[in-house]
Design goal:
The structure holds three protein chains of three kinds. Helices cover 48% and strands 3% of the residues of chain B. By secondary structure, chain B is mainly alpha-helical. Chain B has one domain (3-113): Cytochrome Bc1 Complex, Chain D, domain 2. In chain B, a hairpin with a 3-residue loop joins strand 1 (68-69) and strand 2. In chain B, helix 3 packs across helix 6 (103-115) and helix 4 (77-85) packs across helix 6. Chain C is mainly alpha-helical. Chain C is built from 17 helices and no strands.
């Protein structure tokens, strides 16, 4: 092995041991109370289970390898019942009581003055913020924003098949089932970006159905809410103006809405503030004019079976203009 | 100590190259990170970059031996660097947008692209 | 033992007539054989073929996942491959393999000459083999199902799966389930009725008990999934909306029907394997099983509790907390009987002196892996923890630990252990050790890291994942392990090719000095006579038993009717063990 590979291996091992289990989508890196409780539960069970496993293996090894004169205990049935019946019943009862106490708990953070409705669609997430009166405030896609320290009720439904809404850093998963509305209470204890992903196999591009949850301080969250409620701003350059006109002229509004323009399509994601989202294609690519352009002309290659048709119809500068306008919708 | 070994290995490996301008343009390893971060792979098929399988633009395999950029510019560092930073300024009709690469990022990306032979 | 039912010497032509009656057809007509020793081996061979094929699919999956954003398998192919892998391993390998072992072993272990309905087992085998092959071949035409092995509607209904792929699954699996039920009825009646005289339920081998519970569970569990597949096929074919919410159906109905079968199915697969262990360990330790009655009770208890745990597959569906609590408690409770068995096996090892043969190694490997899988099983039975780990690679790791650890390792132990009853030569101890070592190391390297991947957020059934989530090294490790595991299976196949010689009319004999009746001389043909059973390990307790049986001193030393005859016993008490209870009581023409 060359020293370079050695170093790389050592580094990888270290990363694996120390920081390797954290990450934007890790249940071992909780950012909210619900996920934290479960992580504590998990680590405790892991410790006890390790102890039991080691004990059982040691016992088996001792039994198999001990010298020929058998210990007296081995010849009695009693310990089989003690270890196999009494011990697990006591332990499991305790575990059951503890876990049920967590099962019944909601988040204890103060509630936010809005709710979020998330609809799973093949293969993206339609996100609508609802005001206190239940009326929709605005619609976005593949991204939720939360104020830190507030608990937000997220209403989960589906437009087609079963999906499952899962942000490991914040809470356990909850399915999105046809004909049902499941409500998950999300609360982030610290600011940050958490990645979520569909956890129930939904066919086709299930692997590419992710989303982002951004938890931020009250100030920046309020600014974001205000910005989301606003319609599309008038383009400020020739390029973006041309981009908007192309958007309206080439059929995009049949599926997409951009509030403040004649585009009110509701089949695909609302693009009113697409440029301000972290990703496009449901967590697939970072949002910028390059990825937007690629997505417009060849979405099916980037995300197989995606329902958006390809639009390989633009000259170079037109495609750039369209992507630039979308990028400007912050 | 380990860092020294790494530097030595890099030097040895670099020594095996046949005198490329790559080393003066930037760091190819960093260039790979830049390419991944900007998702150049959304449009280009690029060897060595995970998931870079785009079919919008030309594949970049063997870029180091290619004669022309965008079918228009000579494939030399003095043409590649401005092209990477602002393609439409070099070739007006191109679909490749300016992504705002810094000079250093462009150098690193160019260094990586020239390793593709 | 004084007084045998039949006096010596036996008429000289009697043995030849007996052999002629039971002789299997030769040449290509062998496929028309119906005797359990033949059907059992055919059945097992087909199950192993599907194991290898589904294993190759597993390696394809691992190749695709080895590095982030890989494109060896395109999305649509990957979705078909993982669906076929799961479906084949569960329906075409696991259940048929243990059923096949039952068909092969039970009559021999109970010193009967066949199961009660030999043609029913032949039917079960052929329906399964042909159906399974057709099902597998759908992969080559791009028609393989791609809805995941539990086929949740509405994804699998007509709107979202308009092709014929899902129909292949529903019809293929429907037929295979019918085959499984046919086999289960055969085994159920076989355990209860085709036993040697004197074999009361109290002297029934633990393996037979396991198969009895297995068969009862199939008879109760499988109709639920047959109903489910029928309803879904009707929905697909005629648009009757059983599972479509907006038309008044309910997608959760499918989940209830499927898991009411699906969870017991796990124990349906595990219990026979536990039966293997309870049969192999006493031989290898040279002592009867410790706490035998508790082990039998544990098998029966598992059979009951297993039907009360299915909702733990649905913890994340938003069901009321009260129901979740009940099913969480039941799911934990089902660990208790397994615990009893584990400690009974360890006690048996402690009591006797374990010979470290290949079957013993596989049993020890099973103990380690299954214990770990059982512990993670308790973890996922905990509702909040399941909310994080459900449908992730943690669960993938868990069920491979319980299924490969709990079923494949005991099955390989069983192959090495019982091969000498079927083959002229035993399998190689040397190759067997390699096979075990590679499989054990490969398995743990492949599947242990997947726990971590799941906790780090990797959902199951994804064909690709982004590099920045840090799952790459885990998946690469896992892929390397999977290939080592596959290498272990390859060593086994080499061993089979070199040493396994069935259907020769002779076998390697009682090479392990076992105490149970499948080790009576006779090979794949039948024993010369059917003994009277007086204990659990007759061959240990009656040193002359093998010779007396061979001499034809016991029941049915020849053929009375000129056709095949079998032992028949009362369901509960077995036939009485003294010769005065007329021979006719044990005679029944089965041909």
């Amino acid at each position: 092995m060359s020293p370079r590979i050695c170093t790389r291996c050592a580094k990888a091992a270290l990363v694996a041991l120390v920081g390797g289990c954290s990450g934007p989508q890790s249940a071992l890196d909780p950012g909210g109370a619900a996920a934290e409780q479960i992580a504590t539960l998990g680590w405790t069970m892991f410790a006890v289970a390790t102890a039991i496993l080691v004990a059982v293996l040691a016992l088996a090894a001792h039994a198999a390898l001990a010298p020929a004169d058998r210990p007296a205990w081995a010849l009695r049935e009693g310990w089989v019942l003690g270890a196999g019946l009494a011990f697990p019943i006591v332990l499991l009862s305790a575990l059951l009581v503890w876990s049920l106490s967590i099962t019944g708990q909601g988040a204890d953070a103060p509630p936010a003055p809005f709710r979020i409705q998330v609809v799973g669609e093949r293969w993206w997430w339609r996100v609508t913020y609802l005001g206190p009166d239940g009326r929709p405030l605005f619609s976005t896609a593949n991204e939720l924003r939360l104020p830190v320290g507030r608990s937000v009720d997220v209403e989960l439904t589906t437009a087609d098949v079963i999906h499952s809404f899962w942000v490991p850093g914040l809470a356990g998963k909850l399915d999105m089932l046809p004909g049902r509305v499941n409500t998950l209470s999300l609360a982030a204890g610290r600011a940050g970006t958490y990645r979520g992903q569909c956890a129930e196999y939904c066919g086709g591009a299930h692997a590419l159905m992710a989303f982002m949850v951004v938890a931020e301080t009250d100030d920046s969250f309020d600014r974001w809410m205000a910005a989301q409620a606003a319609p599309v701003a008038e383009p400020t350059s020739d390029e973006t103006r041309r981009g908007r006109d192309l958007f309206l002229a080439s059929g995009c509004p049949a599926c997409h809405a951009a509030r403040g323009t004649p585009a009110v399509g509701a089949i695909g994601p609302d693009l009113t503030h697409v440029g301000g989202r972290l990703t496009i294609g449901a967590g697939l690519l970072p949002t910028h004019r390059g990825t937007l352009a690629a997505w417009i002309v060849d979405p099916g290659h980037l995300k197989p079976e995606v329902r958006m048709p390809a639009f390989p119809i633009y000259r170079g500068e037109d495609l750039r203009a369209l992507a630039a306008w979308l990028e400007s919708l912050e | 100590m380990r860092g020294g070994a790494l530097a030595l290995a890099v030097a040895l490996l670099a020594g095996c190259d046949d005198g490329e301008p790559a080393s003066t343009l930037g760091d190819p390893d960093r260039g790979r990170t830049v390419i991944a971060r900007y998702e150049c792979g959304a449009c280009h098929r690029i060897p060595g970059i995970a998931g870079a399988r785009g079919k919008v633009g030309p594949p970049l395999a063997g870029f180091g031996r290619r004669a022309m950029i965008a079918g228009t510019l000579p494939n030399r560092p003095d043409a590649l660097l401005p092209w990477l930073r602002d393609p439409p300024a070099q070739v007006a009709g191109t679909a490749m947008p300016a992504l705002g690469l810094t000079e250093r990022e462009a150098g690193d990306v160019a260094a990586y692209l020239y390793t593709l032979r | 033992m004084s007084g045998f039912p039949n006096p010596l010497p036996r008429p000289p032509e009697e043995l030849e007539r007996l052999r002629a009656v039971w002789r299997a057809p030769s040449g290509w007509r062998l496929i028309s054989a119906v005797n359990n020793s033949y059907i059992g081996l055919f059945y097992l061979g087909a199950a192993m073929l599907f194991f290898v094929l589904a294993g190759i699919l597993a390696l394809l999956i691992r190749v695709q996942l080895a590095v982030p954003e890989n494109d060896v398998l395109p999305q649509a192919t990957y979705n078909q491959v993982f669906t076929m892998h799961g479906t084949m391993m569960m329906f075409l390998f696991a259940v048929p393999a243990v059923e096949a072992m039952g068909v092969y072993l039970l009559p021999n272990m109970q010193a009967a000459r066949d199961l009660p309905f030999p043609r029913l087992s032949a039917y079960a085998f052929w329906a399964y083999a042909v159906g399974g092959l057709v099902f597998f071949c759908s992969l080559f035409f791009g028609l393989a199902p791609d809805g995941g092995w539990f086929m949740y509607p509405p994804l699998t209904s007509y709107e979202f799966s308009p092709g014929h792929n899902a129909d292949f699954w529903l019809l293929g699996i429907g037929f295979i389930e019918i085959s499984a039920i046919a086999g289960a009825i055969e085994i159920l009646v076989g355990v209860l009725r085709t036993r040697a005289p004197g074999m009361t339920l109290d002297k029934l081998p633990v393996y037979s008990w396991a198969m009895l519970v297995f068969a009862v569970m199939i008879v109760f569990g499988f109709p639920a999934v047959i109903l489910g597949t029928a309803l879904l096929e009707i929905e697909r074919g005629f648009h009757w909306p059983f599972f479509i919410a907006e038309k008044g159906g309910d997608p959760l109905l499918w989940q209830h029907l499927f898991w009411f079968f699906g969870h017991p199915d796990v124990y349906i697969i595990f219990l026979p394997a536990a039966g293997f262990v309870s049969a192999i360990l006493p031989t290898m330790c040279g002592t009867p099983l410790v706490a035998r009655r508790w082990v039998v009770l544990a098998l029966v208890a598992t059979g009951f509790i297993a039907f009360g745990v299915w909702v733990h597959h649905m913890f994340a569906t938003g069901l009321p907390k009260l129901s979740l609590s009940f099913f969480s408690a039941a799911s934990m409770a089902v660990a208790v009987p397994s615990g009893i068995q584990v400690f009974a096996w360890i006690a048996t090892i402690a009591k006797g002196k374990l010979r470290l043969t290949v079957p013993s190694l596989f049993v020890l490997g099973f103990l380690a892996i299954f214990t770990l899988g059982g512990l993670t099983g308790v973890m996922v039975a905990v509702v909040p923890f399941d909310w994080q780990t459900h449908d992730t690679f943690f669960v993938v790791a868990h069920f491979h630990y319980v299924m490969i650890g709990g079923m494949v390792f005991p099955l390989f132990a069983a192959f090495y252990y019982w091969a000498p009853t079927a083959s002229r030569r035993a399998l190689s101890e040397r190759l067997g050790r390699w096979c075990f070592g590679l499989m054990f190391v490969g398995f743990n390297v492949a599947f242990f890291p997947q726990h971590i991947a799941g906790l780090m957020g990797m959902p199951r059934r994804v064909w690709t994942y982004p590099a920045e989530l840090g799952w790459g090294w885990i998946n690469m490790t896992s892929t390397i392990g999977a290939f080592v595991l596959g290498l272990g299976a390859l060593v086994f196949l080499i061993d089979l090719a070199r040493n396994f010689r069935p259907f020769t009319g002779a076998n390697a004999g009682n090479v392990w000095n076992a105490g149970t009746l499948e080790w009576l001389p006779g090979g794949t043909s039948v024993t010369r006579s059917i003994p009277i059973v007086t204990s659990l390990e007759p061959l240990w307790d009656q040193p002359t038993l093998a010779r007396d049986v061979e001499d034809g001193r016991y029941y049915l030393p020849g053929t009375a009717t000129g056709r095949r005859e079998n032992a028949e016993s009362c369901s509960v008490f077995g036939a009485e063990g003294h010769p005065a209870s007329s021979k006719a009581a044990h005679r029944r023409s089965t041909s």
